[in-house]
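testing teh design pipeline on a random one, pls ignore if ur not involved
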C-alpha cells in the first residue's frame, strides 16, 4: 500500500470517528448511513452530492497541479461506458454555455467529439478544461457521475474526499 493510500485511509478513518465540524451546514439524515462510497454514489440524492462536493472540488481548494494528474489516473480507471457518460455530461453542460462539441474537439486537440469513441486521454482533457474554465460544470458532472471520485488518490484530493467520507460514514460508526 502506498503512503498516499495509507494517508487517505487514515483521513477517512479519523473523519468517520466524528471529526466533522467543517460540515455543520450539511445535515445528515441518520437513516441514510452509507456502507461505502459505491453505496453513497448509488443511493445519495443529486442534491446531497452537490452539497458535499460543491465547495470542496474547486480550483480554489485543490490546485490544478494536484487535480490534473489525479483526473487522468481516475478517468483511466473508470469503466468505458462510465467514461462515455462522463464525456457526454461534460459536452451537455458545456454546450449550454455555447461551446460546441466540434469547437472543443479542435480547441482541446481531442481525437473525436463522439463520447462513445473518446479515449481516456480525451475525457481527461475535457475534464481538465472544465475544471479550469468552468468549475461549476466540473462539479455538476461529478455530482451526476460520482464514480470518478473513488479513484482520486492524491493526499490533497484525498483530504477533500475524506471530508465527504466523514459525512456518509460519520453516523454509521455511532
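output:
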Amino acid at each position: 500500500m502506498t503512503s498516499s493510500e495509507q494517508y487517505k485511509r487514515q483521513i477517512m478513518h479519523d473523519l468517520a470517528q466524528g471529526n466533522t465540524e467543517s460540515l455543520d451546514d450539511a445535515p445528515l439524515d441518520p437513516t441514510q448511513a452509507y456502507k461505502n462510497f459505491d453505496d453513497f454514489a448509488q443511493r445519495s440524492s443529486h442534491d446531497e452530492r452537490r452539497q458535499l462536493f460543491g465547495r470542496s472540488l474547486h480550483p480554489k481548494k485543490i490546485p490544478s497541479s494536484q487535480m490534473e494528474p489525479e483526473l487522468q489516473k481516475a478517468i483511466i480507471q473508470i469503466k468505458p461506458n462510465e467514461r462515455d457518460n462522463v464525456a457526454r455530461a461534460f459536452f451537455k453542460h458545456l454546450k449550454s454555455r455555447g461551446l460546441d462539441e466540434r469547437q472543443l474537439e479542435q480547441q482541446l486537440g481531442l481525437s473525436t467529439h463522439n463520447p462513445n469513441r473518446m479515449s481516456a486521454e480525451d475525457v481527461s482533457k475535457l475534464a481538465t478544461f472544465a475544471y479550469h474554465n468552468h468549475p461549476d460544470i466540473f462539479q455538476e458532472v461529478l455530482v451526476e457521475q460520482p464514480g470518478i471520485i473513488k479513484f482520486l488518490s492524491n493526499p490533497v484530493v484525498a483530504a477533500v474526499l475524506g471530508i465527504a467520507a466523514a459525512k456518509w460514514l460519520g453516523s454509521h460508526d455511532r
